[in-house]
Write a structure and sequence with these properties.
Low-confidence stretches of chain B: none
GO biological process, one term (chain A): Golgi vesicle transport
Number of strands of chain B: 5
Keywords (chain A): Endoplasmic reticulum, ER-Golgi transport, Golgi apparatus, Transport
Main location (chain A): endoplasmic reticulum
Strand order of the largest sheet of chain B: 2-3-5-4
Largest sheet of chain A: 4 strands, antiparallel
Number of strands of chain A: 5
Shape of chain B: globular
Distance between the termini of chain B: 32 Å
CATH topology of chain B: Muramoyl-pentapeptide Carboxypeptidase, domain 2
Structural class of chain B: alpha+beta
CATH architecture of chain B: 2-Layer Sandwich
Order of helices and strands of chain A: HEHHHEEHEE
Low-confidence stretches of chain A: none
Subcellular location (chain A): Endoplasmic reticulum; Golgi apparatus, cis-Golgi network
Distance between the termini of chain A: 29 Å
Oligomer: heterodimer
CATH architecture of chain A: 2-Layer Sandwich
CATH class of chain A: Alpha Beta
Function (chain A): May play a role in vesicular transport from endoplasmic reticulum to Golgi.
Chain lengths: 185, 181
C-alpha cells in the first residue's frame, strides 16, 4: 500500500470522528497511571498492568479499525505502515515513522515525535523504571493478535526520560494461518 | 501548545472503560460482568467515591486550561452558565441542553444527547446483562460528576453533583454548598 494513501485515510477518519478534549484525555491517562502507582506500589507491576489494559483496548480497537478501513496487509511492511500512518493518525491524531527493520523483516521500530498522552508529563527521577506509554505497546499487541499476528511490543526509548523521541519496538513472532477455509456462503 | 485539537470519542471510551474496569475488578481472572454482579451496596458506594475523586482532579485541571483570562464570576448563576457552556463545550463538544434552578443553590442540567452513553459498550462475552450495564453506566457517570465537581471547584464553587440517566437523556444535579468567595 502506498505510503500516502494510508496516511490520507487515517486523516479522513480522524476528521470525521467526534472528539473529546485532548487535555481531558491526557489528564485521564495521567490519573490512571498515578492511580496504578498508588495502588500497586511496584513499578514493574504498574508497567505490566498498563500493558494488559492496553491489550484489552487493542482487542476492541481493531474491530472499530477494520470497520472503518478497507485494508489488506500482505507483508509485514504493509502492516507496519498501516499501524504507523493510519492507526496512530486515526486514534491519536499523530503519525509515526517506521524504521530500523531487521534483516528478516519481522522487527521494526515506530518512532513517535510527540503524542497527546505525554503533553503534560514530567517524570520524576524516582520513576525511571516506569514505562509511561506501556499502554500503547499493549494496544498494538492486542490489535495485532486479533488479526492473527502474534507480536511483542516494548518501549525502547522514551522522550520522557530524556531521549529525543519515543521508540516502540515491535517484534512479530508468528503469523497464524487460517486453520480452515472460509465457507462458501 | 497542543498537538491535537481532540481525541476521537472511541479512543477515549476505551480508555475510560479500562479505568473503570480497573477500579471494579480486583482479581485478573474475574470478568467484568461477574465483578459487577458481585459488588455489594457498600462496595458500589466506595468505588463510586473513588471514581469521583479521580474525576475531580481531572476536572480541576481541565478548567485551568479553558479559563484563559482571569474571570472572577461572583454570581453562582454565572458560574453554572459557564460550566454549561464553555466547560461542556470543551469536554463534549456541545452545550448543556437545559439548565434549571430553584434559586436556592440547586441546579439541574439536562443533556439530551450525552454521547458517552450512546456509544459506550461493554464486553459482551457473557450474555448481556442489563442490570450490570446500568451499574457500569452509573460508575461512568460518577466519574463525570467528579469532573463537574472539579470544574466547579476550579471556579471557586464547592458543590455536590449527582447524575442520573432518564428517558429523555442525562440529568445532572448540582447542589451548591457554601460559596467560597
Amino acid at each position: 500500500m502506498a505510503r500516502k494513501s494510508s496516511q490520507v485515510q487515517g486523516e479522513q477518519i480522524w476528521n470525521q470522528s467526534e472528539k473529546v478534549n485532548a487535555e481531558l484525555f491526557a489528564f485521564t491517562y495521567g490519573s490512571l497511571v498515578v492511580k496504578l502507582i498508588r495502588e500497586l506500589e511496584n513499578i514493574s507491576e504498574v508497567n505490566r498492568q498498563l500493558e494488559t489494559m492496553g491489550y484489552n483496548i487493542g482487542l476492541r480497537l481493531i474491530d472499530d479499525f477494520l470497520s472503518k478501513n478497507d485494508v489488506t496487509c500482505e507483508t509485514t511492511k504493509d502492516t507496519a505502515e498501516v499501524i504507523a500512518k493510519t492507526g496512530f493518525r486515526m486514534y491519536l491524531g499523530v503519525t509515526c515513522d517506521v524504521t530500523n527493520w531487521n534483516a528478516d523483516e519481522n522487527e521494526f521500530s515506530l518512532i513517535l515525535a510527540d503524542n497527546p498522552l505525554t503533553e503534560f508529563v514530567e517524570l520524576n527521577e524516582d520513576y525511571r523504571d516506569l514505562k509511561y506509554l506501556n499502554l500503547l505497546c499493549g494496544v498494538i499487541r492486542g490489535a495485532l493478535e486479533m488479526v492473527r499476528i502474534k507480536s511483542v511490543c516494548t518501549l525502547e526509548r522514551d522522550s520522557l526520560k530524556g531521549d529525543e523521541f519515543t521508540e516502540l519496538r515491535v517484534v512479530i513472532k508468528e503469523k497464524v494461518q487460517d486453520e480452515y477455509e472460509p465457507d462458501d456462503d | 501548545m497542543t498537538t491535537a485539537q481532540g481525541i476521537p470519542d472511541f479512543a477515549f471510551h476505551l480508555l475510560i472503560n479500562e479505568v473503570i474496569k480497573q477500579t471494579i475488578i480486583k482479581t485478573s481472572q474475574q470478568s467484568l460482568i461477574d465483578a459487577l454482579k458481585e459488588l455489594t451496596r457498600e462496595q458500589i458506594l466506595e468505588k463510586k467515591k473513588e471514581l469521583k475523586k479521580l474525576g475531580l482532579l481531572i476536572g480541576e485541571r481541565v478548567i485551568g486550561y479553558i479559563v484563559k483570562e482571569h474571570i472572577w464570576l461572583k454570581e453562582p448563576n454565572a458560574v453554572l452558565r459557564f460550566v454549561c457552556k464553555e466547560f461542556w463545550l470543551c469536554l463534549f463538544g456541545k452545550y448543556i441542553d437545559r439548565l434549571q434552578s430553584n434559586n436556592r443553590g440547586v441546579y439541574i442540567m439536562y443533556d439530551y444527547k450525552f454521547r458517552w452513553l450512546q456509544s459506550l459498550s461493554l464486553d459482551t462475552t457473557d450474555s448481556v446483562d442489563k442490570e450490570a450495564i446500568e451499574k457500569f453506566y452509573n460508575f461512568m457517570l460518577s466519574w463525570v460528576c467528579g469532573v463537574i465537581k472539579g470544574g466547579l471547584k476550579g471556579l471557586g464553587v464547592s458543590a455536590r453533583s449527582e447524575a442520573k440517566v432518564e428517558e429523555e437523556g442525562c440529568k445532572f444535579t448540582v447542589t451548591l454548598k457554601n460559596m467560597i468567595f
